[in-house]
Amino acid sequence: MSKATLNLSAIATTIGANLGALTKLEKQATTLKETINKGIVELHTAKAKVGIYRKDGTGCAIATAFVDGCISAGISQGTAQKVYLPTFKQAVGSGKPVADWNGQRGKAKGKGKGKGKSEMSELLIKAFNHDEGKSFEALCESIQQGFDDAKFDTVYAGFIDYLESEGYEINQ
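and the corresponding structure tokens:
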């Protein structure tokens, strides 16, 4: 056998071994997803309510336990709180299994002029274009800061907080 054939055979062996490892990890991932979703159903059945996570530990015990569990497994506090906790909260509330833990991934982020098909988009474009977008940007930054500080746990709650601070009564 030539050196080239031996090198190609070594590459093929490595590919086969890596495929075997990948298959094993995919089976492990499937088992972990099933275990996670069983736990979500248990929490839902027990009528558990997932509240707000606060870094200082004064928030909801279930939210804190979830984020702490993520952190202990190597997930950053910010990612656990901002990306995974909302998905966890929604899943426990609905009792439905989680298919995608990063629900924010793949959401379209449009810019510029749109077709203006909905009333909401017409209202948002007015807010966005007011003061060349500076006011809207400041509002978004304020809401983001409140979210980061765990003052509220959703963007919706941030808008409510802002409107109420401006003296508006919000009917929910």
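(Above: one complete record from the training split.) DSSP finds six helices and no strands in the chain.
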